[in-house]
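Propose amino acids for all 184 sites.
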């Protein structure tokens, strides 16, 4: 199921991003992951390699995952939009809409216990279109049996060093919420 979705994503031409991409980036990790991480969209390195979070933000994400006690192969990592927007601009609402049923399909196929929403676009797509990441980050909420945890996007701390302590605190909270959730 997850593989089928990945194959469809790789040849998808539903929106104009297909014209400028090198590779679509379906996501990677365990199909049985208990924890799903959702970012924004591929950047230059991800577009080149066809893999999520392999550039500078990915390096920081790997460090944050280690702090949480998770290894990349045991989680699943994807993005709301699977092709790189030109010049790394934010994905447009029509692009997010075009990718939405692939994302919903991936969530249904993986059926995770916990979804970590990294950054504003993922949070506004899956929590609330008006959610302010500066307000909701680090606060888990439950919906349809899944615990969602919005956090700052790792790239935010690369652009603005002053956000790094809040990002680290978000992942500490994620760790505590995961421990409570997965032990019960
Ligand atoms: N930023 C994202 O949101 N996703 C990636 O895959 C890489 C950087």
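Proposal:
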């Amino acid at each position: 199921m997850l593989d089928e979705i990945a194959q469809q994503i790789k040849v998808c031409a539903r929106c104009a991003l297909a014209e400028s991409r090198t590779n679509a980036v379906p996501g990677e990790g365990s199909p049985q992951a208990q924890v799903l991480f959702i970012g924004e969209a591929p950047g230059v390195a991800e577009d080149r390699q066809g893999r999520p979070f392999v550039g500078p933000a990915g390096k920081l994400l790997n460090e944050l995952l280690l702090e949480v006690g998770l290894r990349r192969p045991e989680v699943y990592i994807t993005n709301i939009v699977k092709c790189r927007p030109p010049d790394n601009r934010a994905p447009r609402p029509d692009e997010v809409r075009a990718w939405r049923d692939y994302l919903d399909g991936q969530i249904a196929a993986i059926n995770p216990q916990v979804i970590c929403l990294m950054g504003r676009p993922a949070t506004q797509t899956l929590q609330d279109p008006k959610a302010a990441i500066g307000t909701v980050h680090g606060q888990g909420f439950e919906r349809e049996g899944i615990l969602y945890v919005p956090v700052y996007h790792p790239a935010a701390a690369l652009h603005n060093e002053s956000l790094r302590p809040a990002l680290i605190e978000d992942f500490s909270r994620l760790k505590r919420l995961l421990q409570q959730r997965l032990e019960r």
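Residues 39-43, 46, 52-53, 55, 57-58, 79, 155 surround uracil (CB under 6 Å). The mean pLDDT is 96.
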